[in-house]
Design goal:
Layout: H1 2-6, H2 18-32, H3 41-53, E1 56-58, H4 62-65, H5 68-75, E2 78-80, H6 82-92
Parallel strand pairs: 1-2
Helix pairs in contact: 2-3, 2-5
Length: 94
């Protein structure tokens, strides 16, 4: 059964809407600064996906953490360190 189930999981590549592309480009611009977008493309995509499907992005990457406010202002994503997220989760459990 497990072997059969492994063949059933797959992803379908979907295109971004024009608004989503604009948000992704903003994120890329913020993370790249004066550098090359190619160097931060994967990080930008992860931040984009976090804002699209949730509201938190948890990281220890200082390049991203240094741009927390700009990213929140541009796309609403809340970027936190793992310890900060743990504090948030514990606070909701009361």
């Amino acid at each position: 059964m497990k072997a059969e189930a492994q063949n059933l999981g797959f992803s379908i590549q979907v295109q971004l809407t024009p608004n989503e592309v604009a948000i992704l480009r903003k994120i890329e611009g913020i993370l790249a600064g004066n550098g090359k977008v190619e160097n931060i493309a994967q990080d930008a995509r992860h931040v984009f996906e976090a804002q699209k499907y949730g509201s938190y992005f948890i990281t220890t990457d200082t390049r991203i953490l240094d741009r927390v406010q700009a990213l929140r202002d541009s796309c609403g994503v809340v970027i936190v360190k793992p310890s900060e997220f743990l504090t948030l989760v514990k606070g909701h459990g009361r």
